[in-house]
Amino acid sequence: MKFKAPKYFLRISAVGSFVGGVIIFKELLGGHNYSGDENLLGKTVLVTGANTGIGKETAMELAKRKARVIMACRDMDKCLEAKNDIVMESRNKRIHCYDCDLASQDSIRAFAEKFNGEMTRLDLLINNAGVMRCKKSFTKEGIELQLGTNHMGHFLLTNLLLEKLKASAPSRIINVSSVAHTRGNINFDDLNSVQKYDEGEAYAQSKLANVLFNKELAERLAGTGVTSNAVHPGLVNTELGRHMSIYKSWIALLFLRPILWLFLKTPRQGAQTTLYAALSPDLEGVSGKYFSNQREAEVGEAARDGEAAKRLWAVSERWTHLT
C-alpha cells in the first residue's frame, strides 16, 4: 500500500522550503561574519551610537570578547536598555553608559572630560553614530545637523581623546562612513547648506567628510602607534533612515519594508567590517584606508583630494573651537 501525503502536508512542506530558502538567501547576501576570536580583556573600547543598530551589535561583539565597553549615546534610557541586553548576552559586566550628544559640542566636551578623568586607557574608538536624510535642522552650534553630527561631532570627540589613544598605543580609530561618500561633494562655498539644502546631498557630503577626515587624521598620526581607518558597513536595515518620510507611509509598511528586510543587511551583518577593521591582526599598522565587506576598497575621486582634506580639517578646527 503506497503512502499518499495529504495536500496540507505538501503545502506546509512547500512553505517551509520557501521560508528556509529565503533565510539562506538573506544570510548569503549579508556576507560572512568576522572570524577573529581576539581576547580583549584589559582593553577599553568606545562606541558612539551604541544603543541601536550597527553600534549596538558592534558593542555586543566587543563585550563578548571581554573588553570594557563605553557606550556613548544621547538617549540614556535607550542606552541603559541596550546595556542590559549586552550584559545578559555577553556575561560581561564591564559595560558603561555615558551621555554624549554629538549634535552638541558642550555635551561632547563634557563627555570627553569625564572619560579622560575616569578611564586610564582607550584602545579602540569607533565613530559610529550618525543621522541620515533628515529635514533641514541644525546642531546647538548652528551647524547643519548631518554635517554637524556625522562629521563635526566625531571630529571634535576624536581630537579630545587623541592623547588617551596615543598613551594606549597601539590603538585604533574606526570611522563609519558609507558608499554614499562617492556621491558627495564638499561645498566649501556653502558648507552649512544655507543657500540650498538637499537632504541626500547633505548626507553624502557628511559621509565624504568622514573619509577626508580619516585621510588627514591618518597622516597626522603617522608614527604615533594610533591608526585610523574608514569603513562602509553595507546597505543595512537600521533606524538610520527613520527621518525619511517614505519609511512612515503605508506604502513602506506594505511593500518597501519587506523588500528592504530581504535585501538589506541586518545590523549584525553590518557590524562585521567594523569588527574586521577594529580587530584584525592583518591590519596592524595599517592606516588611512577604506574597507567594505572586510576588504580594502577604493574611495571615490573626491575622497582622494589631499588639499580638500587639509582645508576641511582647518574649517573643522574653527567650527569646533579647537583653534
TrEMBL record:
This is Retinol dehydrogenase 13. The lineage of its organism: Eukaryota, Metazoa, Ecdysozoa, Arthropoda, Crustacea. The keyword rRNA-binding does not apply. Pfam families: adh_short (PF00106). Transmembrane segments: none annotated. Keywords: Oxidoreductase. GO terms for molecular function: oxidoreductase activity. Belongs to the short-chain dehydrogenases/reductases (SDR) family. InterPro entries: NAD(P)-bd_dom_sf, SDR_fam.
